[in-house]
């Protein structure tokens, strides 16, 4: 890990300002070269940290934004566990991103998954595949309009990291970590509730132009030391190595406390 990609802040307010600076810069650059800005967002503390400063910025071409979810819990969109619902409350309700450019799971496919859970493995496979294929179609509609693409290449993926080292809904030692094809995967046994989710695969994450991890609080100290400073680590977040893109870490001092890497405070 190049230490210059690790940005630490004494408080989350400063972190949010720099994260907004990076997002605005990437939004401008992407719109200039590709006439759109494609972003993947995660749940947890990320939507609030992202939006707290960004939502007040002016001159952002929000109508050029296309937003996907790096992972989503398979619950209705107005459920308290929904990552969409969280992002809506913290972010979407405050900025004019066109609703049809915020790509959610199809909630009409959820009841058949619920029924399938009672029926058993084969039915679950079928129902979850429909949800996965629907979300992949949404990705295809944005990323594969001109030429077929092997993987979508996001302008920016915003990722959290759990105290166990998970990112997206890719959990330690889970078989989903071995996927080398496919854009979206179903997980029915997430160790973090709720158990049923969809997630971007590692190849999708690693093909992004830019990936920003955001982690705060002392509960992340040990796992960050393992992810950032142990090159042998097999934790999911440690498997994020952009193929050609850039990787950034945004940490508060509490989370970064055990890192011996150099600390810098400004992104641009
Ligand atoms: O769907 C989820 O469960 C979340 O997206 C999850 O993966 C989150 O990003 C991490 O657990 C970090 O969460 P915090 O930033 O709140 O620690």
TrEMBL record:
Pathway: Carbohydrate degradation; pentose phosphate pathway; D-ribulose 5-phosphate from D-glucose 6-phosphate (oxidative stage): step 2/3. GO terms for molecular function: 6-phosphogluconolactonase activity. Residues 12-249 form the Glucosamine/galactosamine-6-phosphate isomerase domain. GO terms for biological process: carbohydrate metabolic process; pentose-phosphate shunt. Its EC number is 3.1.1.31. It is an enzyme of class 3 (hydrolase). It catalyses: 6-phospho-D-glucono-1,5-lactone + H2O = 6-phospho-D-gluconate + H(+). Gene3D superfamilies: 3.40.50.1360. Keywords: Hydrolase. Belongs to the glucosamine/galactosamine-6-phosphate isomerase family. 6-phosphogluconolactonase subfamily. Hydrolysis of 6-phosphogluconolactone to 6-phosphogluconate. PANTHER family: 6-PHOSPHOGLUCONOLACTONASE (PTHR11054). This is 6-phosphogluconolactonase. It comes from Funneliformis mosseae. The lineage of its organism: Eukaryota, Fungi, Fungi incertae sedis, Mucoromycota, Glomeromycotina.
């Amino acid at each position: 890990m190049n230490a210059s990609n690790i940005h630490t802040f004494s408080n989350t307010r400063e972190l949010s300002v720099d994260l907004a600076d990076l997002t605005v810069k990437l939004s401008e650059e992407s719109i200039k070269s590709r006439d759109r800005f494609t972003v993947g967002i995660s749940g947890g503390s990320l939507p609030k940290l992202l939006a707290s400063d960004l939502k007040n910025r002016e001159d952002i071409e929000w109508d050029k934004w296309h937003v996907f979810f790096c992972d989503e819990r398979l619950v209705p969109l107005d459920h308290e566990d929904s990552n969409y619902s969280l992002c809506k409350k913290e972010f979407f309700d405050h900025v004019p991103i066109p609703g049809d450019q915020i790509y959610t799971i199809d909630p009409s496919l959820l009841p058949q998954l619920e029924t399938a859970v009672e029926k058993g493995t084969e039915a679950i496979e079928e129902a979850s595949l429909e949800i996965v294929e629907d979300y992949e179609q949404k990705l295809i509609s944005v990323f594969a309009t001109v030429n077929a693409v092997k993987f979508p290449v996001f302008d920016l993926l915003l990722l959290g990291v759990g105290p166990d080292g998970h990112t997206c809904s890719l959990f330690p030692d889970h078989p989903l970590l071995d996927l080398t094809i496919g854009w979206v995967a179903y997980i029915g046994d997430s160790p973090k509730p709720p158990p049923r989710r969809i997630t971007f695969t590692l190849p999708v994450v690693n093909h992004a132009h830019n990936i920003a991890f955001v982690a705060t609080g002392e509960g992340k100290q040990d796992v960050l030391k393992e992810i950032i400073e142990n090159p042998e680590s097999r934790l999911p977040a440690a498997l994020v190595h952009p193929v050609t893109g850039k990787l950034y870490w945004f940490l508060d001092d509490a989370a970064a406390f055990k890192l011996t890497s150099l600390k810098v405070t400004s992104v641009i």
